[in-house]
Amino acid sequence: MAQVGYLTHLEINGFRSIESTSLELKPLNVLIGPNGAGKSNFINFFRFMNKLLQKDLQLYVAEQGGADALLHFGRKQTPALSTYLRFDPNSYSATLIPSQDGRLVFKEEFCEFFADSIGFSGGDKKKALAKPGAEESALPSPRGTIEGRVAKYIADWKVYHFHDTSSSAPMKQAGELLDSDRLREQGENLAAFLYDIQTHNPEIYKRIVSTIQRVAPFFHDFILAPERHNDSKIRLRWKHKGSDAYFDAHALSDGTLRFICMATLLLQPNLPSLILLDEPELGLHPYAIQLLGSMLRLVSQSTQIIISTQSVSLANEFSADDVVVVEHRENRSTFKRLDTDSLEAWLEDYRLGDLWEKNLLGGTPA
């Protein structure tokens, strides 16, 4: 039975600022655009889908302020939210409508299986899932089915943002030692996750450490061990080069800590099926941004990547066909992949970010 491929085509209708969009996706996708254009809404749609497939839809809708807060200008203008996702050789689609009490409920939900994905000699198969009025998705199904594989794939989409590096940030506190299956979305379990990699994948751990050292030459290594007085907990500690002193995460600069999270995420041994990052360049030194771009390009050969950025320096690290320009026009977000042919002459003399800065790509404040 064929594995689920990466997401090749996406349609979103009626989600926040996204009235309607249809977009072809690639292994690496870089969203550029000004504040308020809709980049974050695009990325948050994937969080919405992740919650939907984990059967946490109603909790998510309530946390976001109800159905009208998610629908494009509310139910008076947008009576339904719909999506179509194509991951060859299968697809998933759903339409949701608002209830009187502010929930989003299913109008319809389908998985479509194309012939070669299930071994049939001809024809396609479309299977209805959630019944009209259902509050949660009918996925996941048993693992052995195509529906189950689709559900597992979407549930493994991870939206990361390592913006909170305040003194009370979870990544700076003691965490559960056994919380190491997946790096959490805000790096809350960074110490436990690194400890697991160090224990089971020492070569990958060494690669993470050496990558961090390229940005932070003073950094020698992590000191990862269960807490002395509570061996079910672990805290991020590290050692300075040329010193026997140990430090905790509070002694790291915001940019260094964010880069540690980024390197751990992108160099880990078991990557999510799709990684989404909202403005990963925040607080990073220009050299760290350059190294981040290199890692993103490399990792996109193994898993799909979608990022949003406002950094000219980070945009310089990518090819024109990686880039999607996001703009806000006539009260809606638009998404357009760059026309590489029309930029060919310009790119002989300028880098991509430089062209963006010169307002030759769009994606700048009107």
Structure description:
The chain has 12 helices and 18 strands. The mean pLDDT is 93. The chain has a domain of 203 residues. By secondary structure, it is of the alpha+beta class.
Offer a concise description of the structure.
With 366 residues, this protein is of the alpha+beta class.
Number of strands: 18
Question: What does the main sheet amount to?
Answer: 6 strands, antiparallel
Radius of gyration: 22 Å
Q: How would you sum up the global shape?
A: globular
Q: Span from first to last CA?
A: 49 Å
Order of strands, main sheet, comes to 2-1-4-5-6-7
* SSE order: EEEHHHEEEHEHEEHHEEEEEHEHEHEEHH
Low-confidence stretches: none
On the 0 to 100 scale, the average pLDDT is 93
Structural class: alpha+beta
Helix content: 25-40%
Strand content: 25-35%
- Number of separate helices: 12
Domain Endonuclease GajA/Old nuclease/RecF-like AAA: 7-51
Domain ATPase AAA-type core: 185-314
GO molecular function, one term: ATP binding
Protein name: DUF2813 domain-containing protein
